[in-house]
């Protein structure tokens, strides 16, 4: 119980209408697990904040000055989870294609806001369950509403591609939306090592090693220059 009460998810509100932003701020303040980092009236300011802070959740209005909400979202390399707020119905399909947590129509009722935040927390808890499994023989990866069990000894290497990771295992490749740094935190460093900004490998699976490359499961993977000093394979 104590852990849950002390858990804080950082969030930002990206909204150019002051009244709408104030309503959302009031809703956020009622949830002790949400911590509002800032309110932004445009995407440029929001982008700067995302570069400087780790943000878990973004409430995003679509009709913003300068850069529209979805255009802004498409440009982000590692976007946080997003709850869209808008007065326009026609953007719902595009929103779901962009893997948005939920879609709130203005004016946003409080009970509808809480449902959207519960969806967000469900997704975050699924990811955190993965991080807590670091010392076990397997991990569970959340993919949508499914939990996929992965035996650690079956992993060859993990590859990052934009906001997705590909986990290459004996049984095949599993693709999930997650930053490579998140799964890196959950893996035992005795068994796994980051060799490049895009690759984590299983040490026991190394077949060939040279100064600038390792071969795992027949695939040659580069060792990034910044990772060389910290790699002890």
Automatic annotation (TrEMBL):
Residues 139-233 form the HTH LytTR-type domain. The modification 4-aspartylphosphate is found at residue 61. Keywords: DNA-binding, Phosphoprotein. It comes from the Bacteria. Gene3D superfamilies: 3.40.50.2300, LytTr DNA-binding domain. Residues 10-121 form the Response regulatory domain. Pfam families: LytTR, Response_reg. Signal peptide: none annotated. The keyword Ion transport does not apply. The keyword DNA-binding applies. InterPro entries: CheY-like_superfamily (IPR011006), LytR-like (IPR046947), LytTR_DNA-bd_dom (IPR007492), Sig_transdc_resp-reg_receiver (IPR001789). PANTHER family: STAGE 0 SPORULATION PROTEIN A HOMOLOG (PTHR37299:SF1), TRANSCRIPTIONAL REGULATOR-RELATED (PTHR37299). This is DNA-binding LytR/AlgR family response regulator. It comes from Chryseobacterium shigense.
């Amino acid at each position: 119980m104590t852990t849950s009460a002390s858990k804080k998810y950082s969030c930002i509100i990206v909204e150019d209408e002051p009244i709408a932003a104030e309503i959302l701020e009031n809703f956020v303040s009622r949830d002790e697990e949400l911590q509002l980092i800032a309110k932004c009236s445009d995407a440029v300011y929001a982008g700067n904040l995302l570069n400087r802070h780790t943000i878990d959740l973004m409430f995003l209005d679509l009709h913003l000055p300068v850069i529209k909400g979805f255009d802004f979202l498409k440009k982000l390399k590692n976007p946080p989870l997003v709850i869209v707020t808008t007065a326009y119905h026609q953007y719902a399909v595009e929103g779901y294609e962009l893997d948005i947590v939920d879609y709130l129509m203005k004016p946003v009722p409080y009970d509808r806001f809480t449902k959207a935040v519960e969806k967000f927390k469900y997704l975050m808890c699924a990811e955190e369950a993965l991080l807590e499994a670091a010392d076990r023989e397997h991990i569970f990866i959340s993919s949508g509403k499914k939990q996929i069990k992965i035996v650690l000894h079956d992993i060859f290497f993990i590859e990052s591609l934009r906001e997705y990771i590909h986990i290459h295992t004996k049984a095949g490749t599993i693709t999930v939306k997650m930053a490579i740094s998140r799964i890196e935190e959950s893996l035992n460093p005795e068994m796994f090592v980051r060799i490049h900004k895009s690759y984590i490998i299983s040490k026991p699976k190394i077949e060939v090693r040279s100064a600038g490359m390792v071969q795992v499961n027949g695939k040659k993977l580069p060792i990034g220059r910044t990772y060389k000093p910290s790699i002890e394979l």
